[in-house]
Each structure stands twice: as C-alpha cells, then as structure tokens.
Amino acid sequence: MEIGEGGGSRHGEEERRGDEEEQEKENEEDVAVEEEEEEEEEGDDEEYAIEFDEETNPLDFIEEAADGVELYQQFERLEYEALAERKRKALQDRIDRGEPSKKPRRDEFLGATMEEINEMMNFGMRRRNRSRAPKKRGRKKGSRNKFTHEVSRKIGDATLHYASGDYEEAIPLLEEVVLLAPNLPDAYHLLGLIYEAMGDRMKAINFHILAAYLSPKDPSLWKKLVSWSIEQKNSGQLMYCLKKAITADPNDVGLKFDIALLQFEMGEYKKAAESYEQILEIYPANIEARKMASKMYRKCGLPDRAISLLEDHVNLPNSKVDLNVVDLLVSLYMDKNAHNEALRHIENARLALGFEKLPASLNTKAIICHAHLGEMEPAEVFFQDIQMENSPAKGDWILEVADSFASLGQYDYAVKLYSTLEEIVGDKNGKLYLKVAQCYISMKESGKAIPFFYKALSKMEDDIAIRLTLASVLVEEGKEDETIILLSPPKSSDIAQSKPWWLNGKIKLQLAKVYRDKGMLEAFADTIFPSLRETLIIESMNQKVRPAKKLPKTVLFERAKLLGEQQPQNIFHGFKPIGTTAELAKAARAKKLLQKKASLRAERKAAAIAAGLEWQSEDSEDETPRKEIQEPPLPGLLMNMEGHQLILDLCKALASLKRYREELEIINRTLKVANNALSEEKKEELRSLGAQIAYSTGDPKHGYNYVRHIVQQHPYSNAAWNCFYKVVSRVENRFSGKFLNRMKAAWRDCVPPIVISGHHFTAISQHQAATRDYLEAYKLQPDNPLINLCVGFRTSTSVSSKGLHFSTIIYASATTARKLCTM
C-alpha cells in the first residue's frame, strides 16, 4: 500500500515536470516568433542600399539619365522588390514551421489580452527570465567591395589630379575604379566634385546622387543635395533629400526647420506641425518651434493641440514669461470663445510683469474679451489709453477692437473707434467710411449712413455692391431722383474702361425698378429690355450645353503636367511631385487615361495599317472647343418670383408703348427658356398678353398660337372665341379649319366653334356646309338671336336662289335682326 502510494506520487511529479518542460518549450517558441517578427518589422524600416553586380556598369546610368530615363524609379523598384522578397521568405519560413501566417500580438478575448490569458493559465508555474541579446542591425561586415591595392592607388592618383586641377586625367582613373569597385561611393563622390569644378552641375548632381545612394547614412552628401535642390527650386527633389538627410542625421534641427517650412508652403500644415514637434523633442526650450507648431495646428483645425503645446511652456515653474507665446495662446482661446481663460492668462502675464506695462496687443485682446463677456467699462479706459500710444501697430489695434464691437452689436463704440482711426491714419481706400455707414444702417439711422456711403464710393467708384446698397438706402428714404442720378451713367463716361460699372446688369436692374415704380414706362423699357433679352438668349444657349461625360485631352494634359514638371536629364526625377492629395490623385488619373488613350490609338493605327486603310489621327489639337456655360447679365432672374413679375411688367410696358414686336420676342423666349420655372398663373398671363398682341396688331399671325391656346383653355368663353374669330378673319391660315374641326369634335355642345366654322364656309362660298353648321348650332341654342339670324340669312339665300321675291328675304332678315336687338 505504501509502495503504491509512493509510486503514484513520483509518477504525478514526473507528469508535472513534463508539463512544465513542454510549457517552457512553447513559451520559448513564442518568444522566438516574437523576436523574429520584431526583427522583420525593424528590418522593414532599414534603408535599402543599392549594390551593383559585376555585369552592371554604373556609368551607363549617368548616360541614360541624360536621355530622360527615370533611374530613381528603377532604384525604387529594386528596393520594393528586395523588401517584398524578404517578407515572402519570412512568410514561407513560418508556413514551413506549421505556424499561422501572422501571429497576433494582441487579441481581444472577453476584454483581456493574450498575454493576460497566458499569465492566468500559467499561474503558479515557474518561468525563466530570458534576456535578449541586442540584435545586430545593418549590413554584414565584408559584404561591400574592399579596397584593393589597385583601387586605392587609382583613387589616390585621381585625388592628386583633382587637387592639381588635372580633371581630364582624373576622370578616366575614377571611371576605371567604378568598374573595379562599383559599390564604392568614394569614386562617385570625387567624380561629382570634379564635374562641379568643371561647371557641369547636372553631372555633378547625378554622381553625388549615386554616392548618396551607396552611402545613405552619410548626411553630408544629402545636405549638399538639399542646398542644390533649393538652388534649382526643385521642390520634389528637395523634399526627398530632406527626408534622407534627416534619416541620416536625426538631430540636425536646421534640416527639420527646412522640411517644416517646405511642408507649410505645400499646405501640409499637420505634417509641418509634427516636424516642429520633432524639434521640440530635441530642444524643448525652442520657443520658435513651439509657436510655429501651434500655428500649424491652428491652421489645420486642431486648436486643442495648439493650446496644449503652449500651455506646457507657460505652466513650467520658474519659466520666464514670453509675451509672444501668451499672445498666441490668448488668440487661440479667443478663437474657441473661451474668453475667461484668455483673460486669466492676460492677468497672469500682467502679474508676472510687475511694474512693467502690459503690451498694447494683449491689452487690446483683454478689451475684446471683456466686451464678449458684456463688460464695456474697460472700453472707456481703452479710448483714453490708446491716444497715448505711439506704436506703428496702433491703427491695427484700434481696427481690431472696432471690428469686434461691431460684430457684437456695440455700434456706438465701433463708430467712435472708426472715427478715431480715421483721424489718425486717414482712409485712403474708403473701407473705414463703409464700416461707419454699415454701423449706422444697423442702428436704423439710414440718413446718417448716406454721407459715409458717398465718401466710400468716391474712393471705390467701381464697387457695385456699395452703389447698390446706397441706392437701396436712397429709395427707402424716398429719394428716387437722387437714386436715378446715382445709377445712371456719368455725363463724362470713360470709354477706355474694360467694363464700366453702369453696364453691369445689377445696376441696370436696380435702375429699371426705380423707373417702373415712378411710372416712367419708356425709360423702364429702354433700361431693362437689352439686358433681359441678352439674358434670355444666353440662358437658352446654356440649356443646350451638355455636361461633359469625359474630360477633354487639353484638361487631362494640364492635370498630368503636375507629374511631369521635372528635369529629364536629372536622375533624381521621378520623385513624388509637390501638390495636395486631391491634385496628385487627379494628375495620376489623368496620366493613366492619357496612357490608355495612347495605347488605344496605337492599336487602332496598327489595325488600320494592317487592313490597308488610311489612318486618321485624332490628336488633341484637332479637338473642337467645347461650349462653356456663360454668365448672363441678370443671373438668377428667371428663377425667382420677383424676376417673373419684372418680365410681366416689361411686357405690359411694351404693350402700352405699342412695341409689340419686342414684347412678343420677350414672351416667346421666356415661355421657351423658363417654362419649368414659371408658375401656371404667370404662363397664362404671358399667353394672354400674346393673344392681345394678335388682337391689337395689324399683322396678327405671330400671336395666332396664343389665341388658339386661349380658346383651348376656355372653350365656353364667348370673349375668347370673339378674339379668336377676329384674329382668324385677318389671317389666311389654312390650319384654322382643321383646328375648328378638332374643337367641334372635342366639345360637341360648344356653339362658338360651330358658328365660326359656318362663317368660314360662307367666306369661301360653300353654302351647303355653312348651312349645315348653322343648323347644328340652331339645334343646340334655338333661341340665340345670332344663330337665328345666320340660319335665316342662309335660308333666305337658298330661297332666293329658287325664285322667291327679294323683299321676302329682306323682311325675314329684318325680323330676325329686331329680335336680336330686343334681347
């Protein structure tokens, strides 16, 4: 029994030791896998160094660069392929070991990480601590070409020739060195120096580039290329060289300032801010970098990050107050409407200065903050203190405070400050006068605003907005005659101007409204008719412009130009061009489309030649220019009710002036162009005006369609049919008979079209057909005197033809006429 228990105990211990050993092996394998993955990730970040094989002549790259071959793209492709091969090999190794393609570092399982789960599962078990040896990074030693005696001797001789100015002797020696040791950067560097001394800058740059590629960790070469890129104003090359130089020398603050400035000029404000923050990581006390980083974050819409950077500096214990930092911090808080926080920092700066006076810029911001908080008492003190200031920025401070008061509705204070500023610096461009006038308008004191509008207009005669605003104010004050003078062309018109203000459509529209309201119909029509007619013509043409389904080649070439603005003789061309992300994306799509078009054109040409046909090239130069949408003199007039009413008023004015042809043109064009925008009521009014033109003019054929439309809309209206009959009786329109037949068929109980049809047959001496229509009308309305008269006349005419006495016919007709008159 004891032996059995002892044996079971030993067996259990052996099992536990076996489990511990297996667990340790698994842990060791996990650590090994993690180390491999970390090495792979670190290896991905390493610089790829180009190495030439024995069959490659690097000097050919220089010659090909002169022919426009993009060598940088070849280098980039080699680097990409090398990194891809490295990843493929690592992936294959994991697959061979039977492991998943990618082991997750952090998996979510019930809110716990994988490491926490393993720790709970291994609780109580012994785990050895393993120290990881530092990983060796970089190229293995001895992999580059070593200096042989022959290479060293040739480089030494070439260096002596270079020092003595015998460049022609040095170049062949160095070219031999390149062939013997193609991966040795010294030969390329020396060749670059020689060509620089000879004045061949492009070859000098190309050899320096090769030297820099073969020694990417040498910052001096990249810095030299940076300076040359600045001289050439090649922003794409400059950005690439700056990144390489910073990688080679991460602690060079000057390079980081340069790349931040370049990113700012490119509009990449967030990247610029991050570059300035990298400077702060090296030198936290660099105030200029801190301010610039905050400004960049402010520009890219990250004010909280900008405030945090400045707060970190301001809140440092025993730090000297930098008023520029405080000023920027206060501005950031004001942008967020955190005026209490802004005042707190201003007061802290005041206390830190002690007996020194607070700068006027901060004092100005304090006044604005108090105004936002509804405290206007400090403004009175500001009025007194600002008079004592002699700073050149005095005017800017007054203007900033005045604009703030105006935006807050404190117009009295704003007018007072604007007037003070006008006394100090004057108003050369009229903007101060305009601000004062706008303040008076906001205070409902239009009378006081008028003189200031005139003063502003004297400085800015061609400003349409000011002239229109002043005209509206004058109309409100009942000064229509003064408004007409304001909007009318000057007596001494300057014809040399490209587009005088008095020819502007908005000016003419405002002047026409004044004429209309005063009842000056002829002046109203003469003013607005040309602009309205031109607007209708342009809008009609714009409706025919179809949206482009695809961009023309000219636009594609213009967009793709962004990718091609590089020097083909430079082996550094092929860098990512400078531009916003959207611009680069458009340029890439344009380039791809152009390449596709070129390949399709080549295929079509080959097919045409193979078929024995003549090839006709479709070059972009032969493209017909597309019609562009033009802006009319009165934009938006046809899309609002006020514009529709103006058109109706013009048509009525033209009718009163008996200018029917012009009226009819406006009606026709309006119904055609603005048919979808007009209400049914406005359409009917316009058609009624067209029908009146047909009724009133001696040549009514142009208004016949409007009359016909009227009777179609109102088939039982005697007035409409009377108008129609008057127009038809004066127009030899062969289609009127067909129209009457359609109306009789559609409205069988409608008498007027039947009677008019009878009149029509009577006029062409078709008496039987006329009698038939009159009798049909008589059946519908037997008591109608007019119908009785028509029936009696036709009957008497028929009887007369059979020999009855003429007096009987006259008697019957007179009797019918008397009945008609007594009704």
TrEMBL record:
Record field: compositional bias (Acidic residues): 20-58
Gene: LOC109720421
Repeat region (TPR), residues: 185-218, 253-286
One Pfam entry name: TPR_11
Entries under InterPro entries matching the protein: Tfc4/TFIIIC-102/Sfc4, TPR-like_helical_dom_sf, TPR_rpt
Name of this protein: General transcription factor 3C polypeptide 3-like isoform X7
Compositionally biased spans, kind Basic residues: 125-146
Record key words, sorted: Coiled coil, TPR repeat
Record-level GO cellular component terms: transcription factor TFIIIC complex
Keyword Coiled coil: yes
GO terms of biological process kind: transcription by RNA polymerase III
Record field: compositional bias (Basic and acidic residues): 8-19
